[in-house]
Design brief:
With 66 residues, the protein is of the alpha+beta class. The protein is 12% helix and 12% strand. The protein has a domain at 28-57. It binds zinc ion.
């Protein structure tokens, strides 16, 4: 097995890990309802993709009278 010959310095370790940061998730707004969306995904809130309805969304039955 290959082994490192020398111990890595603190700065060398930190420099290498500077590339490991996670990227922020990009979010767009649904043009129909304004809900936050990942790009290239249908809106799970209103079921539309690029302005067209592509999903059937089950809505909770809400009673108006209480
Ligand atoms: Zn939507």
């Amino acid at each position: 097995m290959a082994n490192p010959k020398k111990r890595k310095t603190h700065s060398g370790t930190r420099k290498g890990r500077s590339h490991l940061a996670l990227k922020k998730v990009t979010l767009n707004k649904c043009p129909k309802c304004g809900h936050a969306l990942k790009p290239h995904m249908a809106c799970a809130f209103c079921g539309s993709y690029r302005g067209k309805a592509v999903l059937k969304i089950k809505t909770k039955k809400t009673t108006k009278k209480k």
